[in-house]
Each structure stands twice: as C-alpha cells, then as structure tokens.
Amino acid sequence: MRELTYVARHAVEWREAPDPELGSDRAAIVAPVAATSCDVDSAILAGHATRRQPHIQHRVEPPFALGHECVARVTDVGDDVTTVAPGDLVVVPWAISCGGCGHCRAGLTAHCTSVPHMAMYGAPLGGGWGGLFSDLVRVPYADAMLVPLPAGLDPVAMASASDNWSLSWRLVAPHLRARPGARVLVVARGSIGLYVCDIARALGASDVLYVDPDPGHREVAEGFGARTAEAIEPIRHGFDLAVEATGRVDQLALAVRSLAPEGICESAGNHFRPGELPLLDMYLTGVTLRIARDNVRAHIPDALALATTGTVAPERVVSHVLDWDDLPEALPEKHLKPVFVRPAA
Asked: Which terminus of the chain has fewer CB atoms gathered within 10 Å of its CB, N or C?
C-alpha cells in the first residue's frame, strides 16, 4: 500500500509500506475514502513542528506518515469487534484510545494509558501509528475508536469529524447550553473558526463576530450569519465566550481581553511561538482559559448528531474536492479545507 509521507518542509511523497494486519481480535483495518488536512498538518508542512526552538518539547522529525482526519470504509475486523463490520463507513478519531482505561472511561481519550503518551495518527509522537492519508490504516481498538457515519451524511462534508468539526462542537456547544444566547467572539485563521461560527449560530448564539484577515474566510463566515472583521482592538466586556484558533499568542490575548466578567476563552491554536498573556486583566475580569489537546472521541457522536439535523452546513467550509492521487502535489498548497477522495468514495 501507499502512505503519504512528510519528508521535508513543504514536501510530501507517496511511499510504499506493508499492508497493515489486524494483529488483534479487537482491531480493524479501514480504507480512507475522504480525508482532509488540519491546522496541525499545515504547521508540520511549514516546518513549525520540526524547527529547533528551546520552548518546544515535542518535535517531530521526518520522515513520517501524515493525516489524521478522515471518513473510512471498514475492510476487515477482528473476531471480538461488535460495533462495526466490513463495508461500514466510519469516522476515525485522530487519537489512539482503548476505551477501557480510567482516562478513556472518564472521556479523556487523548490521554489513554494503554498506549504511549500522545499516541495519534499523522505524527510519530506516541509511536508509529501511521497516517490517515494512507491507502489502508490499522485501528487497534475498533469498538472504542470507530464511530459509524450516520446515514445521509456526506463523507466529504464530514471528513473533518475526526478532529476539527468535533473539536469545534466542543468549543461552543457545552457553553451555549449553559449560557443560552451567549455572545461569541471567534479569532481564527481557518476551518475551526468557520465551523465554530456555523455551530454557534445553529445553537442560538445571540451574536457571533468572526475576526480573520482572509476575505475568503470572512465571506464563508458571513454565510453562516456571523459579523466579520479583518482585525479588531480588544472590546472590553464584549463577549461571553471567545474562541481563538490562530496559534498566535497576541491573538489569544486579544480574545481574553474582550471577555465579559467570568467569560470563557477556548484556545484551539497550536502555539509554536512563545508570548505573553495579560494575566492581570484576566484576573480582574475572572477569565476561564482552556488550552487543551482535544479528547475528540467523546464528542464525535454529539457532533455528528448535530450534523444530521440539517441546521449546520459543514460542506460550506470544504474549499476543494481533489483526487486521492493528487495528494503529494496538492497538500502543500494553501487551501482552506481540501478533501481528498478515493475513486470508490
């Protein structure tokens, strides 16, 4: 089989690898049918995750298989697998999780204690699990990890349910349940922020302001009913909830400075560069800030359930639908949210 391999800054290539084997009665083999890139992939391709900087503890050195967002078709399952069968379309979570350890039972699936810390697809941080831009992928804990794609949902539209779509649900949905009609600020640079705009409006946010210098991104956000701006100064006490997805500490500081008393800021940015936060302002306002590696498996069913209602339109964030064989040439190009489709999808 082929797996798309990161070999150097802005460079990927197909490399041959042995077909994965089940190796366990609990495992499954899947074939991705619609896979997409994430902000982390963009950072890897730009060299941020391999650049030697003293504040970065976890560097990833090429070569390694890329990709951690996809809808796949099950091709084989172990004897103990009961929740999926060959032929099923499934969402493959980005993090490896057993479903049975204490962390997994508590919903902390990104911190599974049955596998090395940070075990994931698409980066060799917790072992070599391969990437979802591969012809075939082994899923070691099929019942715990794989989530069947509900009937009627388009694999292309939901290719990001492995991470960004479901993460975006988590960033806003629980808060809007607790604070109906909350005012939401989104400071972003790509797909996560746009998904957040869509979900926030669908779940009853009274106001959504999307801040992004890219006019094309702002146009998509406006289609979701958000107000938009290229840039803003902090808006004192302007928002109940802020979502930052830029990876820039100055933009995270802007978000927290715009919160109302006891406001909440969710940061989904990958901060490869250091910076300073306005800690005194945050203290005086009573800000809650979460910067978290997402335990996405726990959120996928709820995020998919929202998608089935028809009140959201994740397909509007898909910028390009491209052929699977074009991955080496097309992935390093700057696209908002490209989805790569296998011929059989």
From this structure: N
pLDDT tens-place string over residues 223-271: 999 999 999 999 999 999 999 999 999 999 999 999 999 999 999 988 8
DSSP bridge partners of 292? none
Q: Judge contact between 32 and 74, C-beta under 8 A.
A: no
Query: How many angstroms separate the CA atoms of 308 and 211, rounded?
Result: 28
Q: Is 146 exposed, middle or buried (0-12, 13-18, 19+ CB in 10 A)?
A: buried
Please give the angle made by the CA atoms of 196, 197 and 201, to the nearest 5 degrees. 115
Distance CA 47, CA 38 (A): 15
Query: Residue 196 is encoded by which pair of tokens?
Result: 């957040």
Decide yes or no: CATH 3.40.50.720 for domain 164-291: yes
Start-to-end CA distance of the chain, whole Å, equals 18
**Considering the domain 2-163+295-341 in this protein, what is its CATH number?**
3.90.180.10
Q: What residue type is 210 in one-letter code? A: Y
Written as six digits, the tokens of 194 are 């746009």
How far is 327 from 333, CA to CA, in rounded Å?
10
- Domain boundaries along the sequence of the chain: 2-163+295-341, 164-291
Cβ atoms of 210 and 221 within 8 Å: the answer is yes
Task: Retrieve residue 92's tokens.
Answer: 């493959």
